[in-house]
Amino acid sequence: TCNPCAAGTFSSKKGEASCTSCDAGKSSQEGATSCSMCEVGKAKPAGPGECKPCEKGKFAKKEGRGECKLADAGSFVAKSGAFEQERCLPGTYSPGAGAVECIQCEEGRYVSRKRATACDLASGGEYVATRGATKPSKCAAGRFSGSGASSCAPCEPGTVSEAGASGCALAEAGVATNANPSYVITLDSSLELEGYLDSQKNRSALASLLKDVIGDLADQPVVVTIEPALSQDAFSSANSTESFSNNLFFTVEANYTGVWGENMDNVSALMLDDFKSQFLEAIETGTLQKSLDASDVLSSASIDEDASLDGIRRSDVNFI
What we know:
6-stranded antiparallel β-sheet; two-stranded antiparallel ribbon; 26 strands; alpha+beta; 4 helices
């Protein structure tokens, strides 16, 4: 009896003793008499086998490719089987070939162009407080910064600066400078956890965990306070704690040293953007859930991601 040619091989004539492998970029089904070109988004080297979808980070723009092409630096391919690459948007970059996603510019850096392979450092007298920025901001009068700053420091008493300054100068003789005013900026937000039982111990643990996730706001250390939530007594004996979703409200306080005449509405809006950026990233990347899993007292809690993301997006400034 005659055996059918295997996939990726063919026989075009009667009486053949063996099958011929398809060329690179071509394949065939079992029992084929000829080979056909691989579709866009797929490739195959010479020899037996089928055309396979390009892996993430690679693409095949034309038919009949023997191998998939790596995404260029400044571009990315997020899905397998792609036939084209996508450019990184402003505020993001990819430093090398074969990226599956673009990286947000870090604090202190920005990029305003598409297809960037690196982000630009903020110049002296400028700052970038949040990740993924497309342009820097100028330091307010009475503040200064060096290159790559994520915030502007206030001038010391007895010194002054104009907007966009990289340093402070001594005040002229006869000119008085006041001590810099201090503010406490408070943000309100919420987080939804399944399987969380409220207690002072759990609140303290969660507040410490959230503080670590947030890090700081505009380079200011923060204090996180979890408000009391539903306790174990609120659960019906017919329901398990794992199936119950507990909506937790919390506040974030940041001390801020201002300068006279500074627009605190702008400052608080900047802190709010910084908070949302950090917290949304912690939820979307799974960083916050990993921290919960590693906790001795919070490992039973899991994040209701959709509800929590909505809660973070609704965060607002409560008090200055």
